Amino acid sequence: MTNDKAGATDGMGGCQCGAVRYRLDAVPSGTHVCHCRMCQKAGGAPFMAFVPTSSFVITRGALSIFKSSDIAERGFCAACGTPLTYRSLPGNLTAVTLGSLDDPNAFVPHTQYGTESRGTWLAEALAAPETAVSDWLKRKGIASVGNHQHPDHET
Ligand SMILES: [Zn+2]
Ligand SMILES: [Zn+2]
Asked: Which of 6, 20, 38, 89 sits 20 to 30 Å CA-CA off 76?
């Protein structure tokens, strides 16, 4: 069973600055989140979300690689630091970071790993008061922002 709604354009993504872009040529399955300490460090975040695929193609630039253990390497953009991939060693299965996809809602995580390291405050944080960026900007009196992020489509 999969709830992933894969379409032709759902499987494209890249880093924040646009120096690295990629495409998924195979329908992903097994989208998951991982709370392990390595993912926390690699993402600089409480957890990472991954979309594994058997066919992953770099369409612009090149990944920089950090071999985080004997069984895994992680790809990122050297120019802007965005975490982009996780690859099991040895193997051809690459997982891309869900947030680096042009449509971060294209695939739904249905499994959690590394739960022994899950933030003890995570559920509490997700139930905390909510503010949209537009409301935050209004509150701060910021009329417009010069956005340096690559857009969520090919350029
Ligand atoms: Zn970049
Ligand atoms: Zn992990």
From this structure: 6
Least Cα distance to 51 among 27, 20, 76, 75 occurs for: 27
Q: Which residue has the tokens 């991939």?
A: 85
Torsional sign, CA 9, 10, 15, 16: positive
13 alpha carbon to ligand 1 midpoint, in Å? 11
Q: For 41, what's the count of Cα atoms within 13 Å in the CB-facing half-sphere?
A: 7
pTM of the model: 0.90
Ligand nearest the Cα atom of residue 112: 2
pLDDT tens digits, residue range 48-99? Answer: 999 999 888 999 999 999 999 999 999 999 999 999 999 999 887 899 999 9
Distance in Å, CA 144 to ligand 2 centroid = 37
